[in-house]
């Protein structure tokens, strides 16, 4: 199996994680981002600019962003569902924005209240606006590996969205396994179907235990960028109590033991997973948080 | 990546699972084994013959085995730590026994109260005894991917135990990731070091999220036999609350979506995971049990 020397991880706990947990105080969000900024992570999805009515968890996005320490070596990004959100992100000073569109028609309507075509139609304008602000645009394609309402998603549909994103002027694409329906077969099928020169990132959930197997499959196919959420925060919205985002410390733990560099200090990351656990006030499911890394030994009996 | 057409799974919940949970009634053990026998599984590790003082959970092994329905298409096995246990297993009528020895000296002393050399010295006699009873012997090498007391295990040490097992007349070997220290790199290193004509099985724990990534790595290297525990029962003895055995339904769920046959009915298996959850009286961590398979869709909004 092929493996790269280095992988680039984007930490999504402050946004994707906290957006799928009961609301937490603004000060805790700032504490979490600041702690993450000190772990060696080079990319952090900090906030989203969404309707505060639909997503009260992110109502304080501008306030959070104004208060966090900005480290020069870290690329902070904000997610937006539409042009209005992108405008707010740019106004807040972000130079990296993510726009989300679902591969599934039903999921796109549930998630952003309009058709896939309507989401795509807005992209050229969003990309032009971002360019004016010298900002980059990544298109995140949700439900890329399956939709909880529609079931399997034809990889050709994902490929069409990638083409539309590229034509619109987006600089990057990401594939979201929104409810953990991905398997190694789905990763392979998607990569067989998608042809693009754009940088690609994959976002896996561990809902059904496959996150690290999917990541390994993607590595073998040359993908070197992944999302992950410290402590695995961000539950699965369709299965209360079930695991959502893959835990960053589980990804780093496996990659480092394989000799794949991430630039991240695993011990600092595990301590930050502990902070995340404190903030969301529930026991998190990350195995590396609970059991410690494989190098943490028990006293000899 | 290489993948086989078919994988053979051995279900270990009745033994390895229940041995690492608080004791449950004999009738529940029988119910669990009988339910597993109706899922299409072709191999079940049913009980162990160990000291009832050291392992009260298995004190009723002979009673359980006498009462369960024996299906002609299923290979039932029993585990034993030494010759005395093997004698009891053969007396109870088992024709497949597993003898456990650790790759780690410290773990072997903690687990079976003697040195690795002492465990190995007994093997030829055990294999001869089993042959007299027309029974097969599998040597399970615990801590093959790391030891919670000693840390990394030299794959050459595992290879030496395999050689000793083969020389003693064992018919099969298994590699146990006893406390979930395995990663794809450890699987590769082990398979690079071990050269044997014996059938090989791998036993992964999901303590740190790597179980299915490890399994995928082993598949790519030609391994087609794995242990798994329905519902993931059998905690991690060194980290209270942490995940132990990989859940059988998570393995089957991923393999079937990849087009790899197991002969198992996933729905029946998930129902049996629900029964296992009832029996151990705690919420289990299996993602496929909690969230359902990827094919189980939500109503359209």
Automatic annotation (TrEMBL), chains A, B:
CDD domains to which the protein is assigned, alphabetical: DRE_TIM_HMGL
Q: Which UniProt keywords apply?
A: Lyase, Metal-binding
Q: Does the keyword Metal-binding feature in the UniProt annotation?
A: yes
One GO BP: ketone body biosynthetic process
Keyword Lyase on this protein? Answer: yes
Q: Where is the composition biased (Basic and acidic residues)?
A: 1-14
Signal peptide positions on this chain: none
Specify one Pfam family.
HMGL-like
Q: Please list the residue ranges annotated as the Pyruvate carboxyltransferase domain.
A: 7-270
Question: What GO MF terms are annotated?
Answer: hydroxymethylglutaryl-CoA lyase activity; metal ion binding
For region Disordered, the annotated ranges are 1-25
Q: What family classification does the UniProt entry report for this protein? A: Belongs to the HMG-CoA lyase family.
Q: Which NCBIfam families match?
A: PRK05692.1 (NF004283)
Q: What is this protein called?
A: Hydroxymethylglutaryl-CoA lyase
